[in-house]
Design brief:
The protein is α/β, with parallel strands linked by helices. It is built from 8 helices and 9 strands.
Length: 290
C-alpha cells in the first residue's frame, strides 16, 4: 500500500523513499531508506535488506533511488548511510572507506543503523546484502573481512585501493593484525561463506585519484601490490577472495569508465541470484530474508 498520510505509528516520511534521518548512535551520520509499498506496520512480515554505500561524491538519496525498482521487484528494504566528509579532520574524504579512524567506527555506526530500523519497522535483518561503488567499494570489501557473519552477499564495485585477503600483509594492505584495529580476529572460513560479485568498467584506467604514495596516510609497504588501475586491483582482489574459498563472480563492463550508475545491472543480477539461493523452496520474493 502506498502511503499518502501518516501511518498508525510511523510518519508519512518513514514510508517509501524516506527523508534523511540522523543516526541515533552518532548524529554526525545519517541515512535514508526505501520501504517497499507492501510494508504494513500492523503486520510487518519478512523482508530482505540491501545496504548500499556511497562513493566519495556522497550522493546517498540518488543512490537509494536507483535501487527502488529492484527493491519492489524483490521485496527488499534499502538502507543508504551518509558518511559526511570532514569528520574529525577538516577536508578528509576517505576515513569511512577504512571503517575506522581516531574519531569514528563507521562499521559500528552502520550496524547500529540496521538495528535501529529493525526496531522501528519491527523486522529482523540478521544478514544483509552489501553494495558499494568506488569509496563504497572500499568500505564493502573491508566490512566483509571484519563482519562476515552479518552478510548474505556483497557486490564490490570499482574500489580504488583494495585490501587483499592475505594474513601475511598488515592492515590495510591485507588482513594481518586485523584484531589490533577492530578487536576481532580475521575469520577466513566465515568470510569464505559470503558470495562476492566484483564489478568494474573496462575503461576505468585513470590512476590520479588512487595512487598511494609513501607520503599518503594509509601507505604501508605492499599497499600497491594489487596493481595500478581499478581494473587490475579488482582482478587482484577477485583472485585473493577465490584463494580464500569465496564464490566469486567478476563483471568487466565494456565501454564504461568510473561511472557508478552505469555499473548497477551486474549488481542487480548478482543480488537477484543471491536472494534466490537464500530463499526456501516454494517461497516468493516477499518472504525472503537472507
Amino acid at each position: 500500500m502506498k502511503h499518502t498520510t501518516d501511518g498508525e505509528r510511523l510518519s508519512f516520511y518513514q514510508f517509501g523513499a524516506t527523508t534523511v534521518f540522523a543516526s541515533r548512535m552518532d548524529q554526525r551520520f545519517s541515512y535514508c531508506l526505501y520501504v517497499p509499498e507492501s510494508y504494513d506496520e500492523s503486520a510487518p512480515g519478512e523482508y530482505s535488506l540491501i545496504v548500499a554505500i556511497h562513493g566519495t561524491g556522497r550522493d546517498a538519496p540518488r543512490l537509494r533511488n536507483e535501487f527502488i525498482e529492484f527493491a519492489e521487484a524483490e521485496q527488499c528494504f534499502v538502507l543508504v548511510p551518509l558518511f559526511p566528509a570532514g569528520i574529525g579532520t577538516a577536508g578528509d574524504l576517505d576515513a569511512y572507506k577504512y571503517l575506522a579512524s581516531d574519531d569514528a567506527r563507521y562499521d559500528l555506526v552502520l550496524l547500529d543503523m540496521v538495528k535501529e530500523i529493525e526496531e522501528i519497522y519491527l523486522l529482523n535483518f540478521d544478514r544483509f546484502l552489501l553494495n558499494g561503488f568506488s569509496g563504497g567499494g572500499h568500505f564493502t570489501h573491508r566490512f566483509l573481512y571484519v563482519h562476515p557473519e552479518r552478510l548474505a552477499g556483497v557486490s564490490i564495485v570499482s574500489p580504488g585501493v583494495v585490501t587483499l585477503c592475505d594474513s601475511n600483509r598488515p592492515w590495510p594492505a591485507g588482513v594481518g593484525q586485523l584484531e589490533d584495529t577492530f578487536g576481532r580476529a580475521f575469520d577466513a572460513a566465515e568470510v569464505a561463506r559470503v558470495p562476492a560479485n566484483l564489478v568494474v568498467g573496462d575503461d576505468d584506467v585513470q590512476t590520479w585519484e588512487i595512487s598511494v604514495a609513501p607520503s599518503h596516510p594509509v601507505y604501508i609497504p605492499g599497499v600497491n601490490a594489487a596493481g595500478v588501475t581499478r581494473v587490475t586491483r579488482l582482478q587482484a582482489l577477485a583472485q585473493s577472495l577465490r584463494e580464500n574459498g569465496n564464490e566469486v563472480t567478476v563483471d568487466l563492463v565494456p565501454g564504461v569508465a568510473h561511472e557508478g550508475y552505469h555499473l548497477l545491472k551486474p549488481t542487480f543480477r548478482a543480488f537477484r541470484q543471491m536472494l534466490a539461493a537464500a530463499r526456501p523452496a516454494g517461497e516468493g520474493a516477499a518472504q525472503v530474508r537472507p
